[in-house]
C-alpha cells in the first residue's frame, strides 16, 4: 500500500506486472512512511486516506478513522 501510494500504482498487481523505477525522493518518503508504521501509526494516517462504503476519505491525525463494522449500521 505504501509503495502504491508513493509511486501512483492503483493495485498491488501493478507491482508484479510492471517494473517501477523509484527515485531518491520516493525512497526517502517510503522510508519515512515505514518508520511511522513501525511506530504504530495507523496506515490510514500515513496514507492520508481511508476507505469507507466504497469511497476514499481524506484522514489525518485528529480525525477518526472510519471502521468497517460501522458500514452496516
UniProtKB/TrEMBL annotation:
<protein>
    <recommendedName>
        <fullName>Release factor glutamine methyltransferase N-terminal domain-containing protein</fullName>
    </recommendedName>
</protein>
<dbReference type="InterPro" id="IPR040758">
    <property type="entry name" value="PrmC_N"/>
</dbReference>
<dbReference type="InterPro" id="IPR029063">
    <property type="entry name" value="SAM-dependent_MTases_sf"/>
</dbReference>
<dbReference type="InterPro" id="IPR050320">
    <property type="entry name" value="N5-glutamine_MTase"/>
</dbReference>
<feature type="domain" description="Release factor glutamine methyltransferase N-terminal">
    <location>
        <begin position="2"/>
        <end position="47"/>
    </location>
</feature>
<dbReference type="Pfam" id="PF17827">
    <property type="entry name" value="PrmC_N"/>
</dbReference>
Amino acid at each position: 500500500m505504501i509503495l502504491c501510494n508513493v509511486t501512483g500504482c492503483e493495485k498491488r498487481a501493478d507491482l508484479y506486472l510492471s517494473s517501477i523505477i523509484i527515485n531518491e525522493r520516493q525512497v526517502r518518503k517510503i522510508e519515512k512512511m515505514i518508520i511511522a508504521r513501525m511506530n504504530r501509526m495507523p496506515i490510514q494516517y500515513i496514507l492520508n486516506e481511508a476507505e469507507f462504503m466504497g469511497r476514499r476519505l481524506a484522514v489525518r491525525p485528529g480525525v477518526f478513522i472510519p471502521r468497517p463494522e460501522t458500514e452496516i449500521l
